[in-house]
């Protein structure tokens, strides 16, 4: 029985289709990943914005507490002033006077702290505006990316279906004895099941292909790379 022969054009076509399918399927799978990554990016920016807002909320809460403490101290000073006017002894009078002075000093410190915190709050507003701008920009970019992915999805799926049909037609042109080996290789390696011989070397592993193997390929005899096992064909001359 004579050995089967295989058309170089068929092998070239098969490899081209496998490469195109690999690229299209990668684009198909990459789209949803891009959308998920975009959504994760939005959440991260929103979390950062919420963190800044919480920091501002905490600062305002601290200011409110300090102001309440000031009011409490002011009321305490008024009460001490009343007691000062009714002090029964010089010692009691001096104690009250010293306490009033200490409370006024404490309030002066509180007032300075409140002013400083208010200045920090004022300086914080641009940070919130910046974070809000980042969230807005991120949402817009993700929305544009999602729209592009969704608009391309049907086209990509259509191209995949078309190429898979072409692939079956081309595979049917392989001799049956070769087709089984070819399908086994494709199942394991995908597009790497085939490789062109370029300048006497396998384009898959870049190892030199023996001259007798190159001759067999030109005689349309199915030949495999002795190093990587790919089904070989001669690249078209440019």
Please name the defining characteristics of this protein:
mainly alpha; 238 residues; 3 strands; Helix Hairpins; 2 domains; 4 helices
Helix content: over 70%
**Separate helix tally:** 4
Query: Taking Cα atoms only, what radius of gyration do you get, to the nearest Å?
Result: 40 Å
Number of strands: 3
Total discrete domains: 2
Q: How is the biggest beta sheet arranged? A: 3 strands, mixed
CATH class of the largest domain: Mainly Alpha
- Structural class category: mainly alpha
Q: Residue ranges: pLDDT <50 for 5 or more in a row?
A: none
Give me the CATH architecture of the largest domain, please.
Answer: Orthogonal Bundle
Q: Taking all residues together, what is the mean pLDDT?
A: 92
Secondary-structure element order, N to C: HHHEEHE
Estimated share of beta-strand residues: under 5%
Shape: rod-shaped
Strand order of the largest sheet: 2-1-3
**Terminal residue distance:** 36 Å
Fill in the CATH topology of the largest domain. Answer: Helix Hairpins
Written overview of the protein:
- This protein has helices at 8-85, 90-172, 176-189, 211-218; strands spanning 194-198, 201-202, 231-234.
- It has 238 residues and is mainly alpha-helical.
- It folds into two domains: 21-173, Helix Hairpins; 175-238, no CATH class.
- A three-stranded mixed sheet has the order 2-1-3.
- Helix 1 (8-85) packs antiparallel against helix 2.
- The longest helix is centred in the middle third of the chain and has 83 residues, at 90-172.
- The two termini are 36 Å apart.
- The mean pLDDT is 92.
